[in-house]
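To: structure desk
From: M.T.
Subject: fold request, one chain
Message: Could you run this one when you get a chance? Sequence is below, nothing fancy, just the single chain.
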Amino acid sequence: MKFTVIGSGAIGGMIGAHLARKGNDVTFVDVDAAHVAAINESGLRITGPVEEFTVRAPAILPEQLPEVIDGVVIVAVKSHHTYGVADQLRGRLAGDAFVLSIQNGLTADILIPAVGADRLVVCFINIGADYMAPGEVMQGNVGTFRIGELDGTISERVIALAAELPYVEITDNIVGYLWGKEAYGSMLFAGAVSDLSIADTLDLAEYRPLMLAIAREVLAQSPVTPMGFDGFDPDDLEGSLDRLAAFNRGSAKSHSGIYRDLAVRKRPTEVAVQIDPLAGPLTKYVADLIRAIERGERVNEVANLDLLAAYERLERLGRPLNAVVAPLSAPKRGLKGPLVGTAVAVKDIIDVAGSPRGNGNPIDMRGEPAVTDAPVIAALRQAGADVFALASLLEYAAGAPHPDLPEARNPLDPATTAGGSSGGSAALVAAGVCSVALGTDTGGSIRIPAAYVGVVGFKPSWGLLSVEGVTPLAPSLDHVGVLAADVHEAERVMAAISDLRPVAAREQLRLGVLRGQLDDPRLDPEIARLTQKALDCLAAAGVVLEERDSTPLSATDEVFGPIIHAEAATVHAERLAADPEHYGEATRRLLTAAVAQPREVGEGAAAARPAIVAEALSLAEGVDALVGPVVPYAAPALTPPMDTPEGEIEGIFTAPYNVTGQPSITIPCGVTAAGLPFAIQLAAPLGADAELLAVAARIEALLA
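Reply: Done. Structure tokens follow.
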């Protein structure tokens, strides 16, 4: 038979060589002039573990194709080059000539308009081959090779081709094989963003949920029954990963052709034809990362695969909790830095270039995107972090959700709230979507949700992290901080984005126990008992506990309310007057009360603040940290608005440290009888952030 092989690199060269060795009339066609010259001069050499041989056959450039082409035209180009080949073949096929596509991807829809459906036969191939050098192709294994008509018939031409092609078998469901390869190929695309081998990518436990989810996403779109091959079974995906890992571990082809295009040959991949037509979020994340690597914005490294795994968790775990405002696909970041491989979610009240600052308000969420990153976001990127998602929040961080936006739920008990206002950030960390997230805190908005969901919440000293590019609520009380899986993660991120430098805690810790907070009648008795039990554990471990009178901290309540009202009124008064319906009812009620507060009340509170703060700060003298409860109760079903009885007391233990500006951190200590988390709160002198984190890490270890 006569064959014209268009695309004589890896697969085309390997198949064409087998055909030529069998005595068929083969002409190789390739755009690589050096490859064409080498074939003409010395033949095409097949190397590798399967077998080694050389064939002599003519090779030409595409522009040397005859005006009329007869016989069988094998199209084996990369799928994104199919459009160009289709244009070349249009009107050039002789009367009985036809096309045999041996490609990855669903390219039939590209070829049929050019050559006609009756002139197209399709193959599925899973044989590993690589272009090594001009005139040399390596065959890495012998895998599944199938041929069939698109309509499922077993035609004479298919039977004739099967007699000449190596390793091939005839199928009546070639489309099913192509969709099976789409699923497997999508996993290969995902793995190609790293420098791991195919086998390792499929074998490592941390990436298995990602690979399974991608395969399921693609298979759900198949219009026919998808077919299995070489260990891949659409009905047993988990087992497939084991079998595919073993299959690829035994192949001389360790990395996919996609990886070689990205990392070795530095050329565009087949993503436009193979991945772009697919529906679903995960394949979109993969495509965007592939293109970022193609543009030189990223390099092939495991950090990219870690990011894809975080996206999978975002979709599977984060969205059901109402914690996700929007994913940020293929985020730009520094190629080096201490946070490379760290995915960070960001409360949607902080400027992220290219996204609106949503503020927990549906109108703002449709607003103009930010032009630049807030400084804290820029610092994250510079450190190499992937700012990968915007997290939900209570409207304007003012204590209540907008009625049109669902409140973030608690991963430990979705019947309860994740809290506010940084509830989305807290929920994503607690669910295991990411190890760290940014939040803001004006009266406890980091620490309260952290306590509700059982993660670490760190509010640094006022001013340590810039609040530029953050929607203010009360500027003199507002803080940017972190929610993290543990203290070490909080410390690691803080060290990367601020001037904080980690220190070691003293061997003998001394804590000032805020007895008045523990005895406060508003504190739930179970929380009080559990908190005391945690303190007893610390004492038994050698921590010195020294009781301190918490009255000076309680006194900050005299100024907290008037200050937050005065400053929130300054921020929101103009919009509230012009467009009150912009706000949800609960937020509007709070802001209306803020605007109605007499000016002299706010001014009086501001004047009284320095003396109150000075006395409160003195409580931390002589101890490594103050310790007390975080919230008077465990997570409720919904966040109580600030102007309700429950809302009025929610922040009584956290808000004092916003007034003083001193750093404070929450450490999970266990769960209540109902299975809801509770935590203790530590606070240190103003500016002693590094020291507080060191103490918190020690306390965390002792309570573990």
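Reply (cont.): The chain is about 40% helix and 15% strand. Let me know if you need anything else for the meeting.
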